[in-house]
């Protein structure tokens, strides 16, 4: 019998208690985040689990090593299918604008320095009122966010009828290694048409989208204790080393290092 979803109630504040306000959350599987918005920006980083959010008419699926930025006033909702530990950094609207944070919801690539600071804050969450040193550290986080590369929605969807069918097929068959030419033929299109639609609608090639999908598919399997070898085979890799290389390229860590970080 499926577990009843857990609804997470967003914080209700008249104003931020600090211009950069940090919150750490540990949420169970099947958590729902109701639609809400606030007059300050929010950067969300997942230490474990994949963030699945909807905002500004787009879907965002954000794995660890990436974060999600919501600008002030952007309504968003979503949830997590698996248990998740993540933090939110709420940033005053004037400060976010002054420092040049993006004006659209987007995924941000978290560099090693920023990840190390976020992990430090996870182990030592600051309490209001923040000390001078904690405020300085949070300001460094904001400095890093401003220069962090934007990664769009990381695993974008498409409303194009042809492309939507191809992406749905790949999600349902994560171990498929059909080349682009066969995928195009399977859905009655030319390889050139499918490649053009992917670049226009997704901003990335089908091959890159497929690798991102595979790594996101692997995360809950790693947390559930599956071996790297079995995951590699299920996802269509000829060897564990090929899967590990892909995983490291996309998430800047190995599958075993990721698994250890979740314990």
Major sheet: order of its strands?
Answer: 1-3-8-5-6
Query: Fraction of residues in helices?
Result: 40-55%
For the record, give the distance between the C-alpha atoms at the N and C termini, rounded to a whole number: 27 Å
Q: How would you name the CATH homologous superfamily of the largest domain?
A: Regulatory protein AraC
CATH class of the largest domain: Mainly Beta
How many separate domains?
2
User: What's the quaternary structure here?
Assistant: single chain
Secondary structural class: alpha+beta
Taken in chain order, the helices and strands follow as: EEEEEEEEEHEHHHHHHHHH
Computed Rg: 19 Å
Topology, please?
Blueprint: E1 6-7, E2 20-27, E3 31-36, E4 41-48, E5 51-55, E6 58-62, E7 66-70, E8 76-80, E9 84-91, H1 93-99, E10 106-109, H2 112-123, H3 132-146, H4 161-172, H5 180-186, H6 191-201, H7 206-223, H8 228-234, H9 240-251, H10 255-262
Parallel strand pairs: 1-3
Antiparallel strand pairs: 2-9, 3-8, 4-7, 4-9, 5-6, 5-8, 7-10
Quick take:
The protein has helices at residues 93-99, 112-123, 132-146, 161-172, 180-186, 191-201, 206-223, 228-234, 240-251, 255-262; strands spanning 6-7, 20-27, 31-36, 41-48, 51-55, 58-62, 66-70, 76-80, 84-91, 106-109. The chain is α+β, with helices and mostly antiparallel strands and 263 residues long.
Write up this protein.
By secondary structure, this protein is an alpha+beta fold. It folds into two domains: 141 residues, Regulatory protein AraC (Jelly Rolls, Sandwich), CATH 2.60.120; 102 residues, Arc Repressor Mutant, subunit A. It is 41% helix and 21% strand. The chain has ten helices and ten strands. The strands form two sheets. It has a five-stranded mixed sheet with strand order 1-3-8-5-6, with no helix packed on it. The longest helix is centred in the C-terminal third of the chain and has 18 residues. The chain is globular, with a radius of gyration of 19 Å. It starts with 5 loop residues before the first strand and ends with a helix. The model has no long low-confidence stretch (mean pLDDT 90).
């Amino acid at each position: 019998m499926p577990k009843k979803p857990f609804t997470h109630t967003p914080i209700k504040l008249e104003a931020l208690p600090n211009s950069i306000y940090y919150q750490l959350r540990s949420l169970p599987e099947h958590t729902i985040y109701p639609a809400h918005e606030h007059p300050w920006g929010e950067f969300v980083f997942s230490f474990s689990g994949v963030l699945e959010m909807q905002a500004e008419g787009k879907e965002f699926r954000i794995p660890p090593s990436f974060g999600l930025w919501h600008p002030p006033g952007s309504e968003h909702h979503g949830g997590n299918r698996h248990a998740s530990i993540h933090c939110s950094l709420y940033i005053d609207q004037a400060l976010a604008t002054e420092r040049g944070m993006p004006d659209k919801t987007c995924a941000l690539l978290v560099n090693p320095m920023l990840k190390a600071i976020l992990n430090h804050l996870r182990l030592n969450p600051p309490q209001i009122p923040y000390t001078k040193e904690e405020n300085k550290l949070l300001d460094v986080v904001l400095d890093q966010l401003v220069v962090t590369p934007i990664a769009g929605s990381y695993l974008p969807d498409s409303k194009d009828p042809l492309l939507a069918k191809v992406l749905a097929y790949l999600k349902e068959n994560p171990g498929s290694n059909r080349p682009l030419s066969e995928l195009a033929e399977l859905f009655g299109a030319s390889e050139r048409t499918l490649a053009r639609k992917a670049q226009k609608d997704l901003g990335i090639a089908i091959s890159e989208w497929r690798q991102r999908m595979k790594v996101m598919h692997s995360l809950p399997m790693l947390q559930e204790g599956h071996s790297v070898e079995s995951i590699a085979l299920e996802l269509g890799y000829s060897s564990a080393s090929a899967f590990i290389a892909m995983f490291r390229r996309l998430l800047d860590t190995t599958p075993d290092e990721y698994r250890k970080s979740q314990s």
